[in-house]
Every structure is written in structure tokens, then in C-alpha cells.
Design a protein that fits this description.
This protein has 152 residues and is mainly alpha-helical. The protein has helices spanning 2-11, 16-42, 61-69, 73-87, 90-103, 111-126, 128-133, 142-151.
Length: 152
């Protein structure tokens, strides 16, 4: 009889190892989150080796404007094409979008979002009917979906 009582206690896991395990399960995630948060705040995000820690309150507008200059290629292309759409017409911008994607295949994954932005801008500049007349099969008719999304 005594043997079965011992087996039940062990089987249900009420021993000291079970208590330690539960304690670790509760404390360990808290410790990991806090240590990760502290590590992120100590990283030199400024890119300036002389300043090892930069807090948000220490960032100046000149730091922010310097970092804003280096932009992703797809953002530069989108802005250039939107300006071209205003100065010339959406057809020219779409042609240059297709040429840019052909020349730099890495831009292909951004083609849809750029073409939609061009479609929305074309509606604002030319109205929905005239904007749709510039539609071409660039990026799987994303320009047209940008026109339609703005119109409806």
C-alpha cells in the first residue's frame, strides 16, 4: 500500500522539481523580455561611433534629416514617377516604370504598389475617365486598380 501512495505523488508531479519548473515558467519570460528591452536601449542606433547611446530625446532635427536622405530605391523611383506624371502624363510615367523594372529586377516586387500610386495620382490630376485612358498592362493592371480604388 505504501508503494502505491508514493507512485501517485510522483505521478501527479507534486515534487520539488515540478515547483521549480512552474517558477521558471513564470519568471523566465519576464527576465527575457526585460533583458531584451534593456539591450535594445543600449544599442548605438545613431551610427555615430563617438556617441554610444542615443535616446529619442537627444535626436536632433539635423540627425533626422540626414537619415532621411538615404531612401529606398523604390521610394525614389515612385517619387520620380509621380513628379513625371504631373509634369508630362501617366503614360510616360508607366513606360518609365516598366523600363526601371526591366533594368532592375529587384524593383519588380514594388511595381504593383508604385503603379497603384500612379493610378491614384492620375485620378487626382486628370479625373477617372481620362486617367483610365492611360492604362497599360504594367505590373498586371495595377495602375487600373489604383484608378478604380480612387474613383469608387
Amino acid at each position: 500500500m505504501k508503494h502505491s501512495t508514493t507512485n501517485q505523488r510522483t505521478r501527479h508531479g507534486r515534487g520539488p522539481a515540478r515547483r521549480v519548473g512552474r517558477t521558471l515558467a513564470l519568471v523566465l519570460p519576464v527576465v527575457l523580455v526585460l533583458s531584451g528591452t534593456l539591450a535594445v536601449t543600449r544599442v548605438n542606433w545613431s551610427g555615430n561611433p563617438s556617441n554610444s547611446v542615443l535616446t529619442a530625446s537627444e535626436a536632433t532635427s539635423s540627425d533626422v534629416s540626414t537619415r532621411a536622405v538615404s531612401r529606398a530605391p523604390q521610394d525614389v523611383l515612385r517619387d520620380k514617377l509621380l513628379l513625371e506624371l504631373q509634369e508630362k502624363n501617366p503614360g510616360v510615367a508607366l513606360t518609365h516604370l516598366q523600363e526601371a523594372v526591366n533594368g532592375r529586377p529587384s524593383l519588380a516586387k514594388h511595381c504593383v504598389s508604385i503603379a497603384r500610386a500612379l493610378g491614384r495620382a492620375a485620378v487626382r490630376a486628370y479625373g477617372p475617365t481620362r486617367a483610365q485612358s492611360f492604362a497599360r498592362p504594367v505590373c498586371d493592371t495595377s495602375f487600373s486598380s489604383g484608378v478604380a480604388a480612387t474613383h469608387f
